[in-house]
Design brief:
The complex is a heterodimer of chains A (417) and B (86). In chain A, 32% of the residues lie in helices and 18% in strands. In chain A, the strands form three sheets. Chain A has an eleven-stranded mixed beta sheet with strand order 5-4-6-7-1-8-15-14-9-10-12, sandwiched between helices. A two-stranded antiparallel ribbon of chain A has the order 2-3. A two-stranded antiparallel sheet of chain A has the order 11-13. With 86 residues, chain B is mostly helical. Chain B is 60% helix and 0% strand. Chain B is built from four helices and no strands. In chain B, helix 1 packs across helix 2 and helix 1 packs across helix 4. The chains are: A alpha/beta (417), B mainly alpha (86).
Chain lengths: 417, 86
């Protein structure tokens, strides 16, 4: 079925739980003015002494998002996912079971590492005191699928549910899955996105030892600098982003607000190396081309690319090369990771939300710390925030494992459907 | 001994976020009382094993739901006494 004849998907609700805030306006404002969420880890934080800079989200107690009996041994990634889902579902003004058949609602919320730090904590107990120190609640408290499961339980979502574990592309994969479910007619509404809480000592040490993290910055707000010549790694971040995606027809019928439409997706695989991107960017470019084809628009219609842009030497350069290859004339390109850090499995979700707001508000966020654009990144890099209509925009997510995912959003109602 | 085990159980239930304000030795753990689910029963059994060395089989644990807190405390006390005299 050509894209034009397929059911259009639209975004009716969004929720964020990020190092730059829990409120959509606060979040987007931080991206546009360059207000950083990156700090020196305070004493007592699991990353204290291990990294120079971290993007730490606000505190949350389990009791805020779960009933008391369920509020124990629950990993932070689940709490942040639930908080963002609460906000997104409230924002969409939808009552599942009243406004929509629960079997027509799906939930796909992904994560990169799941509840690794909860597992780590329980493992410390096991090593110190043996098996009786391990909680029987561990599995429902750390498994990657539990974000989808617990959101489903909380809201009575009974249709399709799943979780896609593709590291830093996990959030974007979840949103692509939502579009497939809407297009296939499987669901009228899908709650989707990603969540990540990677601040356990073991995991942080592994990233550090892999020399993947930004280092040597006296001011932590300077550490994440996508596309800048002095970039030297990414800043680890935590958080969650959740979107409510609906069939446009269904949203229209219930009078829902449409922020923007989700009109295309593309995914490819590098088939190259477990962590390094394919240097020629061939598969990344192909993901973008597939997404544009899936959207049924011309490459020139894409006015903005929210880059994966993690601030690593090779990754940013390869992405710029891939954007050139996919589009020819470069659309405006920025990376919001300069202020948010890299939220791994949640990155694709919060950046999809940033892209939706870019289209909705006609504001392209600039790239923080892009003081000296790298000539090797030869695209139209957005340093300072620009204003003006953005008819269609694309968001990239690339991952360890070589997973490449691109999503295309457009002004609500502007394309077929 | 029973009073001590009762206190251990009630404290444990409070740790598990159960509302124990009206809980006494006569409170039933199953659907007619606190309505503990299977993982909560499992946690309680681990607590009793850790504190008193009383091991319970899966079958015995499933029987917990029909028992009062004092009945379970009595069971723990009896096993501890047997263990002590052995």
């Amino acid at each position: 079925m050509p894209a034009s004849a397929a059911r259009t998907a639209t975004i009716t609700g969004m929720g964020v739980f990020t190092p730059v805030g829990r409120d959509l306006d606060q979040f987007f404002d931080a991206l546009c003015v360059g207000r950083s969420g990156i700090v020196n880890p305070p004493e007592g934080h699991p990353t204290f002494g291990a990294v120079d800079a971290a993007a730490i989200a606000p505190p949350i107690e389990a009791i805020e998002v779960l009933p008391p009996l369920a509020a124990r041994v629950v990993d932070r990634f689940l709490l942040m996912a639930l908080a963002a889902a609460d906000d997104a579902i409230r924002d969409a003004k939808i009552e599942i079971g009243t406004d929509v058949d629960p079997y027509r609602v799906g939930v796909v919320v992904s994560t990169g590492v799941g509840g690794m730090s909860t597992y780590e904590q329980q493992s410390f107990g096991w090593q110190a005191r043996g098996g009786n120190a391990v909680s029987p609640l561990l599995y429902p408290g750390f498994l990657p699928n539990m974000a989808s499961a617990r959101i489903g339980i909380k809201y009575g979502i009974r249709g399709f549910s799943s979780s896609i574990s593709t590291a830093c592309a996990a959030g974007a994969h979840a949103i692509a899955e939502a579009l497939r479910l809407i297009r296939d007619g499987e669901c009228d509404v899908v709650v989707c996105g990603g969540a990540e809480a990677p601040f356990g000592g073991t995991g942080v040490a592994a990233f550090g030892n892999a020399r993947a993290l930004a280092a040597g910055w006296a001011d932590p707000t300077h550490a994440s600098r996508p596309f800048d010549v002095r970039r030297n790694g990414f800043v680890l971040g935590e958080g969650a982003g959740i979107l409510v995606v609906e069939s446009a027809e269904f949203a229209q019928a219930r009078g829902a607000r449409r922020y923007a439409d989700l009109i295309g997706w593309g995914a490819t695989t590098d088939a190259y190396h477990p962590t390094m991107p394919r240097p020629d960017g061939h598969a990344a470019a192909e993901a973008m081309r597939k997404a544009v084809r899936s959207a049924g628009i011309a490459p020139g219609d894409v006015k903005y690319v929210n880059a994966h842009g993690t601030s690593t030497k090779l990754g940013d350069q390869v992405e710029a090369t891939a954007i050139r290859a996919a589009f020819g004339d470069s659309p405006a390109v920025s990376s919001t990771k300069g202020v948010t850090g890299h939220l791994l499995g949640a990155a694709g979700a919060i950046e999809a939300i940033a892209t939706v707001l870019t289209v909705d508000r006609g504001m392209i966020p600039g790239t923080a710390n892009l003081d000296d654009p790298d000539p090797a990144c030869d695209v139209d890099l957005v340093v300072k925030t620009r204003t003006g209509p953005v008819a269609a925009a694309l968001s990239n997510s690339f991952a360890f494992g070589g997973h490449n995912v691109s999503l295309v959003f457009a002004e609500a109602g502007a394309t077929a459907g | 001994m029973i009073a001590e085990v009762r206190t251990t159980v009630i404290d444990g239930l409070a740790q598990m976020n159960y509302d124990v304000s009206d809980v006494t030795g006569e409170t039933v753990l199953g659907p007619e009382g606190l309505d503990l689910e299977s993982l909560a029963i499992a946690e309680l059994a681990i607590l009793l094993e850790d504190t008193y060395g009383s091991k319970f089989t899966e079958e015995e644990m499933s029987g917990f739901t029909g028992m009062t807190i004092d009945q379970i405390a009595g069971e723990v006390a009896a096993r501890t006494a047997v263990g002590a005299s052995a």
